[in-house]
Specification:
Elements (H helix, E strand, L loop, with lengths): L1 H20 L10 H6 L10 E3 L1 H6 L10 H4 L5 E8 L9 E5 L14 E5 L11 E14 L2 E10 L5
Parallel strand pairs: 1-2, 4-6
Antiparallel strand pairs: 2-3, 2-5, 3-4, 5-6
Amino acid sequence: MPLLVLFLLLGGILAAPGLLLETSSTAGEYTLAAIERGDAPDDDDDAIDVSILALKNARYRRGRPLPRWIRDLDGKRVNIWGFMAIGTLEGLQKFELVPESCECGRSKVNHFVDVTLVEGRTKFIPGRITLTGIFHASEQETDGFITSLYRLSTPNLPR
Protein backbone atom coordinates (compact mmCIF):
# COMPACT_ATOMS: atom_id res chain seq x y z
CA MET A 1 0.00 0.00 0.00
CA PRO A 2 2.74 2.61 0.74
CA LEU A 3 4.23 1.96 -2.71
CA LEU A 4 0.87 2.79 -4.31
CA VAL A 5 0.66 6.05 -2.34
CA LEU A 6 4.20 6.97 -3.37
CA PHE A 7 3.37 6.19 -7.00
CA LEU A 8 0.25 8.40 -6.87
CA LEU A 9 2.15 11.28 -5.25
CA LEU A 10 4.96 11.07 -7.79
CA GLY A 11 2.44 10.96 -10.63
CA GLY A 12 0.74 14.10 -9.27
CA ILE A 13 4.04 15.96 -8.99
CA LEU A 14 5.02 15.08 -12.55
CA ALA A 15 1.58 16.01 -13.90
CA ALA A 16 1.31 19.34 -12.05
CA PRO A 17 3.57 21.41 -14.35
CA GLY A 18 1.36 20.48 -17.27
CA LEU A 19 -1.61 22.00 -15.47
CA LEU A 20 0.18 25.33 -15.39
CA LEU A 21 1.03 25.25 -19.08
CA GLU A 22 -1.98 23.67 -20.71
CA THR A 23 -4.87 26.02 -21.43
CA SER A 24 -7.82 25.59 -23.71
CA SER A 25 -7.01 26.24 -27.29
CA THR A 26 -9.27 27.31 -30.11
CA ALA A 27 -8.42 28.09 -33.70
CA GLY A 28 -5.97 30.97 -33.88
CA GLU A 29 -4.88 30.77 -30.24
CA TYR A 30 -1.54 29.34 -29.18
CA THR A 31 -0.67 28.10 -25.72
CA LEU A 32 2.56 27.42 -23.92
CA ALA A 33 2.00 23.75 -24.64
CA ALA A 34 2.02 24.61 -28.36
CA ILE A 35 5.35 26.39 -27.92
CA GLU A 36 6.76 23.34 -26.15
CA ARG A 37 5.70 21.20 -29.12
CA GLY A 38 7.44 23.62 -31.47
CA ASP A 39 4.23 24.98 -33.00
CA ALA A 40 4.26 28.64 -33.97
CA PRO A 41 1.57 31.09 -34.98
CA ASP A 42 0.76 31.03 -38.69
CA ASP A 43 1.05 34.79 -39.16
CA ASP A 44 2.32 37.84 -37.34
CA ASP A 45 -1.16 38.89 -36.17
CA ASP A 46 -1.53 35.90 -33.87
CA ALA A 47 -0.28 36.28 -30.32
CA ILE A 48 0.70 33.45 -27.99
CA ASP A 49 -1.29 33.18 -24.76
CA VAL A 50 1.14 33.18 -21.84
CA SER A 51 0.22 32.43 -18.23
CA ILE A 52 1.79 34.79 -15.71
CA LEU A 53 1.30 32.00 -13.16
CA ALA A 54 3.42 29.63 -15.26
CA LEU A 55 6.13 32.32 -15.51
CA LYS A 56 5.99 32.85 -11.74
CA ASN A 57 6.31 29.12 -11.05
CA ALA A 58 9.14 28.50 -13.51
CA ARG A 59 12.41 27.36 -11.97
CA TYR A 60 14.94 30.15 -11.87
CA ARG A 61 18.50 30.27 -10.59
CA ARG A 62 20.77 33.19 -11.24
CA GLY A 63 23.18 32.58 -14.11
CA ARG A 64 21.39 29.46 -15.33
CA PRO A 65 19.28 29.33 -18.48
CA LEU A 66 15.56 29.88 -18.13
CA PRO A 67 13.40 26.89 -19.11
CA ARG A 68 13.33 26.33 -22.85
CA TRP A 69 9.61 27.14 -23.21
CA ILE A 70 10.31 30.61 -21.76
CA ARG A 71 13.38 31.16 -23.93
CA ASP A 72 11.29 30.19 -26.96
CA LEU A 73 8.87 33.04 -26.16
CA ASP A 74 11.64 35.67 -26.29
CA GLY A 75 10.91 38.22 -29.01
CA LYS A 76 7.44 36.80 -29.70
CA ARG A 77 4.10 38.62 -29.63
CA VAL A 78 2.13 37.43 -26.59
CA ASN A 79 -1.11 37.95 -24.68
CA ILE A 80 -0.65 37.99 -20.92
CA TRP A 81 -3.05 38.84 -18.13
CA GLY A 82 -2.31 40.10 -14.66
CA PHE A 83 -2.77 43.04 -12.31
CA MET A 84 -0.95 46.34 -12.01
CA ALA A 85 1.22 46.20 -8.90
CA ILE A 86 -0.10 48.11 -5.92
CA GLY A 87 1.63 51.47 -5.77
CA THR A 88 1.86 51.90 -9.54
CA LEU A 89 2.43 55.59 -10.19
CA GLU A 90 0.34 57.35 -12.81
CA GLY A 91 1.81 59.18 -15.79
CA LEU A 92 4.85 56.93 -16.30
CA GLN A 93 5.68 54.57 -19.15
CA LYS A 94 6.57 51.57 -16.93
CA PHE A 95 4.87 49.40 -14.34
CA GLU A 96 4.99 45.86 -12.98
CA LEU A 97 2.38 43.28 -13.97
CA VAL A 98 1.80 40.77 -11.17
CA PRO A 99 -0.33 37.60 -10.89
CA GLU A 100 -2.42 38.69 -7.88
CA SER A 101 -4.20 41.99 -7.22
CA CYS A 102 -2.68 42.27 -3.74
CA GLU A 103 0.96 42.02 -4.84
CA CYS A 104 3.22 45.04 -4.93
CA GLY A 105 5.80 43.69 -7.39
CA ARG A 106 9.56 43.17 -7.09
CA SER A 107 9.18 40.50 -4.39
CA LYS A 108 11.01 37.85 -6.42
CA VAL A 109 12.49 38.52 -9.81
CA ASN A 110 10.37 35.84 -11.52
CA HIS A 111 7.08 37.00 -9.92
CA PHE A 112 6.41 40.00 -12.15
CA VAL A 113 6.65 41.24 -15.71
CA ASP A 114 8.17 44.68 -16.34
CA VAL A 115 5.81 46.43 -18.75
CA THR A 116 6.82 49.35 -20.95
CA LEU A 117 4.10 51.40 -22.62
CA VAL A 118 5.56 52.49 -25.94
CA GLU A 119 2.93 55.13 -26.72
CA GLY A 120 0.86 55.60 -23.58
CA ARG A 121 1.24 56.49 -19.92
CA THR A 122 0.22 54.58 -16.81
CA LYS A 123 -3.13 55.08 -15.17
CA PHE A 124 -3.78 52.66 -12.31
CA ILE A 125 -6.36 50.02 -13.23
CA PRO A 126 -7.46 48.07 -10.13
CA GLY A 127 -8.80 44.95 -11.91
CA ARG A 128 -7.34 42.22 -14.06
CA ILE A 129 -5.97 43.40 -17.40
CA THR A 130 -4.80 41.59 -20.51
CA LEU A 131 -1.90 43.03 -22.47
CA THR A 132 -0.59 42.17 -25.92
CA GLY A 133 2.98 42.99 -26.83
CA ILE A 134 6.49 41.77 -27.49
CA PHE A 135 7.85 39.57 -24.70
CA HIS A 136 11.49 39.34 -23.68
CA ALA A 137 12.96 36.88 -21.21
CA SER A 138 16.50 37.15 -19.89
CA GLU A 139 18.36 38.30 -16.82
CA GLN A 140 18.63 42.07 -16.70
CA GLU A 141 21.27 43.26 -14.25
CA THR A 142 21.65 46.64 -12.56
CA ASP A 143 24.47 47.37 -10.10
CA GLY A 144 25.23 43.67 -9.64
CA PHE A 145 21.60 42.68 -8.94
CA ILE A 146 19.18 40.88 -11.24
CA THR A 147 16.29 43.34 -11.49
CA SER A 148 14.16 41.73 -14.18
CA LEU A 149 13.61 38.41 -15.96
CA TYR A 150 10.46 39.12 -17.93
CA ARG A 151 9.68 42.26 -19.96
CA LEU A 152 6.79 43.23 -22.20
CA SER A 153 6.59 46.17 -24.62
CA THR A 154 3.04 47.15 -25.49
CA PRO A 155 1.59 50.27 -27.11
CA ASN A 156 -1.00 51.25 -24.49
CA LEU A 157 -3.08 50.06 -21.57
CA PRO A 158 -6.40 48.42 -22.44
CA ARG A 159 -9.38 50.80 -22.43
